[in-house]
Design a protein that fits this description.
The chain is an alpha/beta fold. It is 44% helix and 15% strand.
Length: 347
C-alpha cells in the first residue's frame, strides 16, 4: 500500500508538502499541487483518515440530526447536505431524533462523541436541552428548517440557522384561495411549538387579513405534522356546522392525511372543497387533481447549511447569522383553477 512518503518521492516534493496539499493546511503552487495529485492518482494512495484526525484534531465528518428522514422534504435536505459535504471532502453521520427533546439531546451527544467536526440539526419544539449541550461542549452547529427564537440566557449561545421563508408563501396560498371566492378557508397546521408551524400560522392569518376575511379559530386545527394527525384534524373541520370550502395543509405528510379524510367523507377536490399545500413533493402533479403547492428549496437548504457550518469551522468568531431561502408557488389544479398550461397562470 502506498504511503505519503511514496507520494512525496514520486512528486519530487517533501512529505510536508504532500500533507499541505491533501489537508489544505497551507497554499501550494499550482504546478506542485498538480504533481502531488498526479502522484496520488498514479500510486493509488489513500489518506489515513484516522491518523490525520489525530494530527489535525479534525475528522472531516459532519453529524446530521433530522426527524422523519422518510419525509420527502427531509430526504431532499439530506441529499443537499450529503452532496455539499462530499464536495468539501467531508463524510456524513446521520441520526433521527424523532422530534423528541430528550432523544434529540442523546442523539446529538452520540454524534459529538464520534468526534464530528460540527453538527447540522433540525431542532425539536423544545430545544433547550440541545442548546445547553451545544453550549456546554462548545460544539459548532447549524440549525436548519426550524428556527430557535429568543433563547434564554441558560439555553446556550446563539447558533447559525438556515431555513425557508414560511409566512409569505402561506399567505400567498390563502390569498389565492380567497381570490377564487372562498370565504371559509381552513388550515391544518403542524406540530405546536415548531417555528415552521407558528410562522405558517402567522402567514395564514395575514393572508386572511389581506383578503378582508375574519380569523375564525375553529378553522385552524393542528395535525401534529403527521398524516394520521392531519386526517383526524380534518375530520373535526368537516364536522363543523359550517365547514370550510377550502383547505391549506401545513406540510406534505399532512396533505396525505387530509386527502384520506376527504375521501372518507366522500368529498372531491376541487369540486367539493379546494386544497392547497405547503410543501411540494415529487408525485404532487400525479394526483388527480394535481396539487397546487408551495415548493421549498430542500436541497439548497441542506447545501447552504453545510456551507454555513464550514464557514463557522473556519472562523469560529464570525457573527451568528440566519439565512432564509425563498419558496416557489407551484400552480396546479387542486385549488379549483383551470390547468395553467391551458389558461395561463391566474395567480
Amino acid at each position: 500500500m502506498a504511503t505519503m512518503a511514496d507520494v512525496a518521492r514520486s512528486a519530487g516534493v517533501s512529505v510536508a508538502t504532500v500533507s499541505h496539499v491533501l489537508n489544505g493546511t497551507r497554499p501550494v503552487l499550482p504546478h506542485t499541487r498538480q504533481a502531488v495529485l498526479d502522484a496520488v492518482e498514479e500510486l493509488g494512495y489513500t489518506p489515513n483518515t484516522l491518523a490525520r484526525s489525530l494530527v489535525t484534531a479534525r475528522t472531516r465528518s459532519i453529524g446530521l440530526a433530522v426527524s422523519a428522514i422518510s419525509n420527502p422534504y427531509f430526504t431532499e435536505i439530506l441529499q443537499g447536505v450529503e452532496t455539499a459535504a462530499l464536495e468539501a471532502g467531508y463524510s456524513l453521520l446521520i441520526a433521527d431524533p424523532h422530534d423528541d427533546p430528550e432523544h434529540e439531546r442523546k442523539v446529538v451527544q452520540l454524534l459529538h462523541e464520534r468526534r464530528v467536526d460540527g453538527l447540522i440539526v433540525a431542532p425539536s419544539a423544545d430545544p433547550r436541552g440541545l442548546r445547553a449541550y451545544l453550549g456546554r461542549h462548545d460544539v459548532p452547529a447549524v440549525f436548519l428548517d426550524r428556527l430557535v427564537h429568543a433563547p434564554g440566557k441558560d439555553d446556550g449561545p446563539p447558533v447559525d440557522q438556515v431555513c425557508a421563508d414560511n409566512a409569505e408563501p402561506m399567505s400567498r396560498l390563502v390569498t389565492h384561495l380567497a381570490g377564487l371566492g372562498h370565504r371559509r378557508i381552513g388550515l391544518v397546521a403542524g406540530r405546536a411549538g415548531l417555528s415552521t408551524t407558528s410562522e405558517r400560522i402567522t402567514g395564514y392569518r395575514s393572508g386572511l387579513a389581506f383578503a378582508g376575511l375574519a380569523y375564525d379559530e375553529r378553522l385552524l386545527v393542528h395535525g401534529d405534522s403527521e398524516s394520521a394527525g392531519a386526517e383526524q384534524a380534518t375530520g373535526a373541520l368537516l364536522s363543523l356546522g359550517v365547514p370550510p370550502t377550502a383547505l391549506v395543509t401545513g406540510n406534505n405528510a399532512m396533505t396525505i392525511g387530509v386527502l384520506r379524510a376527504l375521501r372518507a367523507h366522500g368529498l372531491s377536490v376541487p369540486g367539493d372543497i379546494a386544497l392547497c399545500c405547503f410543501d411540494d413533493f415529487a408525485w404532487a402533479d400525479l394526483f388527480s387533481p394535481r396539487l397546487t403547492a408551495i415548493a421549498q428549496p430542500g436541497r439548497d437548504i441542506g447545501a447552504r447549511a453545510v456551507h454555513v457550518l464550514l464557514e463557522r469551522l473556519a472562523e469560529p468568531d464570525r457573527p451568528v447569522r440566519t439565512v432564509r431561502l425563498p419558496c416557489t408557488f407551484v400552480h396546479r389544479t387542486s385549488c379549483g383553477c383551470p390547468s395553467p398550461s391551458e389558461e395561463g397562470n391566474p395567480s
